[in-house]
Design a protein that fits this description.
The structure holds two protein chains of two kinds.
Chain A: E1 2-5, E2 9-13, E3 18-26, E4 31-37, E5 44-49, E6 53-57, E7 60-65, E8 70-75, E9 84-91, E10 97-99, E11 103-108
Parallel strand pairs in A: 2-11
Antiparallel strand pairs in A: 1-3, 3-8, 4-5, 4-9, 6-7, 7-8, 9-10, 9-11
Chain B: E1 5-7, E2 10-13, E3 19-24, E4 31-37, E5 44-50, E6 53-57, E7 65-68, E8 75-79, E9 88-95, E10 104-105, E11 109-113
Parallel strand pairs in B: 2-11
Antiparallel strand pairs in B: 1-3, 3-8, 4-5, 4-9, 5-6, 7-8, 9-10, 9-11
Classes of the chains: A mainly beta, B mainly beta.
């Protein structure tokens, strides 16, 4: 089976940097993805790591360490619109993507 | 920008009734998925579909559920004999490549079972 753990809530100040961690256990591993979901909306893809290291996409970066079964999403220059839930997701089987428990990020002025 | 479209956006049904949720994936995508999300909870994998057959399914996806790609564009999820606990948002997603690196989700179909 697969399980992914994330902090349930994080609060950060506008303009700051926040890191959302994800630890996972999976019987197979093809990569770690991150999705953003605003209240009432659909998950939208942010970033993917298939190999160890850092991937940068604008204000968002994602990191993976396969040996530690760990990854994180880094959000820089936080904006109010970044308030949302963030899910890590593991591609564990050939076509199975399992989502984590989700982290609700609140950005405050 | 290409998008995944889902219908209906909201459906209310009586317990025990059958429901069909419809999805039109992105046209050049080959891998299709259904997820569900109970209010305030995580996104749960139900099933993936490739080359006209199920490639993976979760323990949630029991005999009550079925999927079909009846033509070249639609991808449907059928729930037979709905239960109260089936009330959730159901998301369809599609992907272009194997390994499910990037999924594009539809806006979802909210199912309410009374």
């Amino acid at each position: 089976g697969q399980s992914l753990e994330q902090p349930s809530e994080v609060t950060a100040v506008e303009g700051a940097i926040v890191q959302i961690n994800c630890t996972y256990q999976t019987s197979g591993f093809y990569g770690l993805s991150w999705y953003q979901q605003h209240d009432g909306g659909a998950p939208t893809f942010l970033s993917y790591n298939g190999l160890d290291g850092l991937e940068e996409t604008g204000r968002f970066s994602s990191f993976l360490s396969r040996s530690d079964s760990y990854g994180y999403l880094l959000l820089q220059e936080l904006q109010m619109k970044d308030s949302a839930s963030y899910f890590c997701a593991v591609s564990g089987g050939y076509q199975k993507v399992t989502f984590g428990t989700g982290t609700k990020l609140q950005v405050i002025p | 920008e290409p998008e995944v479209t889902q219908t209906p956006s909201h459906q209310v049904t009586q317990m025990g009734q059958e429901v069909i949720l419809r999805c039109v994936p992105i046209s050049n995508h080959l891998y299709f998925y259904w997820y569900r999300q109970i209010l305030g909870q995580k996104v749960e994998f139900l099933v993936s579909f490739y080359n006209n057959e199920i490639s993976e399914k979760s323990e949630i996806f029991d005999d009550q559920f079925s999927v079909e790609r009846p033509d070249g564009s639609n991808f449907t999820l059928k729930i037979r004999s709905t239960k109260l606990e089936d009330s959730a948002m159901y998301f369809c997603a599609s992907g272009a490549s194997s390994g499910a690196n990037v999924l594009t989700f539809g806006a979802g179909s909210r199912l309410t079972v009374l």
